[in-house]
Amino acid sequence: xxxxxxxxxxxxxxxxxxxxxxxxxxxxxxxxxxxxxxxxxxxxxxxxxxxxxxxxxxxxxxxxxxxxxxxxxxxxxxxxxxxxxxxxxxxxxxxxxxxxxxxxxxxxxxxxxxxxxxx
Length: 119
Hints:
Structural class: mainly beta
Strand content: over 45%
Helix content: under 10%
Number of strands: 12
Number of helices: 0
Radius of gyration: 13 Å
Shape: globular
């Protein structure tokens, strides 16, 4: 049984920072591709970024590149989404997910955490 639990969302002013956490159980995060997604009100869920298992390489959507990073703490079996220089358009519910096969889709998702950026 795989479980992902996000936390760290909240209300922040534009230009501020937040760090979201995604704590995993049932799988070791360093062994799988972990992704972050977000869904704004009335819009579809979109990709934000991901961290690979081997080597921990990261990849980000253009909309967040240079502002967001995805650190990983293997000891805590947790991945993070460090969000800096936040903009009102970053307002969304943020989800983490895990892909159990190297080139497959994401198999398990967290419940999501709300991030609201005020102008």
